[in-house]
Amino acid sequence: MGVDHPFFSKPTAADRRDRWSWHLGRILGIPTRIHASFALVLVWIGFSTWSAAHSSLAVLFGLGFALAVFTCVLLHEFGHALVARRFGIETRRITLLPIGGVAELERSPSDPRAELWIAAAGPAVNLGIAAALALAGFALGSFGAGGLVSVVLSGLVWANLMLGLFNLVPAFPMDGGRVFRALASKRVGQLRATQLAAKLGRFLAVGFGAWGLFGGNPVLVLVAAFVWFAAGRELASVRHQVQQRQAFERVQAFAGPPPSRDHASRDQVFYVWRG
């Protein structure tokens, strides 16, 4: 019987319950998976590359580059997960989707400072990758020299710059929306800050949708739909949390404070009550 590696271990039975994803294993103790629809992206990339170049090597290059970009997306999500772990929040799973990745935390950070660092960690990973690859390219003299290495390095630099900067847009569901909420919560409150970021997210979704429809880009239309519904979902989630917190405070005011032997904070009691 083999011993699991501390970095990578096989998925457990619980990890395999989702039929619509392929499990890569538990990386750093976090179940990591790829959604089944990811295969459609690879098929589309392969087909479109073949239609344009009629070359099997071009198809392999396109697929390899796509996998490299999604590896950077995976590292982005692990940036969130590992910083969340530093704040005592574990990650249930990380899932790669055709339009990005999702790190599902066990709970939302109650401290705006924690939310700020967790949200900023993902884009910081991509910007760090872009900087490292750019330095490597200049050190090797690859940029501007032509050839496969130059194309790959420059492509990955731009891809990571786009991932990092786009995710810093202060609108939900992008990481910048969470950064904005963390910074604005102390001034206008969590709910109002979430409303502002969600409204901006839906405004961007309308722009993406119009651009995709008039430009004939179905991918942008899908991104627009995802942004619209994700922004609304985040707003609904925060509203629900606020309502539950208010209900808890009313019950606590009626029943009195808990016994002194219970040293749990209000947020901890609130979280256990939710679960």
Characterize this entry briefly.
The protein folds into 2 domains: 17-168, no CATH class; 170-253. It contains 8 helices and 5 strands; from the N terminus they run βββααββαααααα.
Please provide a written account of the structure.
The protein is an alpha+beta fold and 275 residues long. The protein folds into two domains: 17-168, no CATH class; 170-253. Helices cover 66% and strands 10% of the residues. The protein contains eight helices and five strands; from the N terminus they run βββααββαααααα. Strands 1-2-3-4-5 form a five-stranded mixed beta sheet, with helices on one face. Helix 1 runs antiparallel to helix 2 and helix 6 packs antiparallel against helix 7. The longest helix is centred in the last third of the chain and has 38 residues, at 218-255. The radius of gyration is 22 Å and the shape is globular. The chain starts with 7 loop residues before the first strand and ends with a helix. 25% of the residues are buried. The model is unreliable at 1-6 and 261-275 (pLDDT under 50). Its cofactor is Zn(2+). Pfam families: Peptidase_M50. The chain crosses the membrane at residues 27-47, 53-76, 116-141, 147-172, 219-236.
